[in-house]
Amino acid sequence: MTALTVAGLSLRLGDFALDDVSLTLPERDVMVVLGPNGAGKSVLLETIAGFHRSARGRIAIGSRDVTALPPEQRRVGFVVQNFGLFPHLSVAHNVALGARGHRRGGPVADRVDVAALLERFGIAHLANASPTVLSPGEKQRAALARAEASHPDLFLLDEPFAALDAPARAQLRLELAHFLRERRLPALFVTHDYVDVAALGDRLALMRGGRIIQCGTVDEVFHRPVSRAAADILGFENQLVGRIEGGERRSTRVVVAGRILHASATSDAPANGEITVAIRAENVRLASPATPPKGAADNRLTATVVALEPLGALTKVTLDCDFPLVACLMSRDVPDIGLAPGAAVAATIAASDVHMVVA
Amino acid sequence: MIAVPQPWRGGGSLGSPLVVLAAWLCGGVLLAFILLPLFQLVAVQTAGTLLAAARATDVQSALTLSVTASVLTALIAGLFGVPFAYFLARADFVGKSAVAAIVDVPLTVPHTVAGIALLMVFGRHGVIGGPAEEFLGLRFWGTLAGIVVAMLFVSLPYTVNAARIAFEGVDPRLEMVARTLGLGPWRVLAQITVPLAWRGIATGLTLTFARSISEFGAVVILVYYPMTAPVQIYEMFLRYGIEEASAVAVLLLVISLGLFILFRHVAYGRRPIAGGGR
Q1: Is the ipTM of this complex over 0.95?
Q2: Distance from CA of B238 to the nearest CA of A (A)
């Protein structure tokens, strides 16, 4: 059973467009749609919610084809940036509006007990408060309670906490993940921040220029970006063009600027074929060249420090290992390793952290 | 003794106290310019002259006519202007800025010019005035309808502009959320959009009312009789002089200011939170 099926959706909307977008969301899964600003993520969500008429394609929620239905009949819970609470209504009224919406003349058993819902979300004491005085966490709970009151078949979340500061964002992300997992509600969560992915998603779709460029489980997509564009969206700081030299049963040797990198996956690409390897900066470990390698160092490269860029608790280090390489480490480790521009350093990368970009 | 430093009382973004002083000086001149003539107008009155003016039937009917016509104008402006303002705020189309400019045209047309132009359209031989009388029996010269037409022309922009700005201030995503909660487009308009834009709409209607009750130029050309209060004041000024006219002027001033304040109070006095039950 699928919670959402989007097939061949295309439309044009001013500067934004959707180009042949297809998705399937299994029942009870949360899919994160990740992409840069302007990728068409919000347009996709708004189209699924019913606000834009698609030129081509089909949308089904569960087994219902909703392509031709107006938003009020699609049964989606829509959560927008800053949560979209109605500022002229009390919290209880906001939730009651969600409860009233779908069920005009419906059976009594179907009516939602607003007080019980507020209780469950831990905001009963705010029932008569104005949404404008709520903390971001309380706003999120009120918005989720309101959406829940309308019995949605699918949750659509459009960067609800993108406008908040980092600590608040982390807290709300945690609460939202808890809510979605506990309720086992299918949801599509749109964001441009890849930190949201692991915390919230079972599945991950990468979007760019109105197209889905890769879609799969979070692990698959995170570890095997199929294109440089995908690796860009996933935030891989290092993307190195190399050549496949050969491989064993479970690993591949890639030559980058004359130096060999071992990757722990096999590649379908032909030997001598050009390939891009993607490596996260935090997976490049640095040590003083005098330190003997600890454990299995799949890839140990001698390098020269080009530049240091302190970023608070972390420091970004640009290296020259015959090719440019960016590493990221705790700032407190910088003096121990003796990092300074021009200094020699040993960089190690686990083979499992060297990702081969297929295309 | 340790000298306790005085807290720095900066003038905020205004900076130096001199700037604040200069601002107060300029503002004081302006306020005096507005208030002095009105104060003078009221100060010369005695209870006797005011009472005598208020008892005169022609004054009473002129004031009643002014209030009736202005309230009617504001209602009609709301009926046509508010939906149009919503359309202007939400729709995106080629020539939108031209349409918005047309809405502003009455603000720049001299009111006597507006009156003459309206007379040509709504008068006995006008493209609307002629057929309207022939088929509907509706006459615009010498009638309340004509007064409303003249008032509407000069005061409609205030309602459209204020309501448009108010609608633009309502986040479209709130309307989207309301739709997904199961509300149809009309219910969203009634329960979300209009309540959120209400203050701006009410401000626009109040300004339209205020502009209408003070209108002279356009009205006097289209409809001299029956006389609205400003026309009555003008005629008394010509016939009897400043003293007779000023008593009626004070009455009009009190009524229009009083209603203006009342309407504003109604618009702003609404409880901000519905259902914030005690």
Answers
A1: no
A2: 52
Q: C-alpha B260: how far from its chain's center?
A: 9
Cβ within 8 Å, pair A90-B173: no
Distances (CA, A) of B209 to B148, B166, B203, B262: 11, 18, 10, 12
CA dist., res. B276 & res. A132, Å (int): 13
- Name the percent of chain A lying above pLDDT 90: 52
Cβ–Cβ under 8 Å, residues A154 and A101: no
Question: How far A9 CA lies from chain B's nearest CA (Å)?
Answer: 20
What does the buried/exposed string (b/e) look like for B125-154 if buried means 16 or more CB atoms within 10 Å of the residue's CB?
ebeebeebbeeeeeebbeeebbbbbbbbbb
8 A C-beta contact, residue A212 and residue A205: yes
Q: Coil, helix or strand for A227?
A: coil
Amino acid letter for position A283: N
Gap between the Cα atoms of A85 and A79, Å rounded: 9
Beta bridge partners of A65: A60
pTM of the model: 0.82
| pLDDT category of residue A198 using cuts at 50, 70 and 90 | confident
Residues of A with CB under 8 A from a CB of B: 14, 46, 49-51, 70-74, 76-81, 84, 86-90, 92-93, 96-98, 100-103, 128-130, 146-147, 150, 152, 156
Q: In angstroms, how far is CA A182 from the centroid of its own chain?
A: 20
Q: Which one of B92, B273, B277 has the shortest CB-CB distance to A88?
A: B273
**How far apart (Å, rounded) are the C-alpha atoms in residues A314 and B230?**
75
**Residue written as tokens 């004054």?**
B59
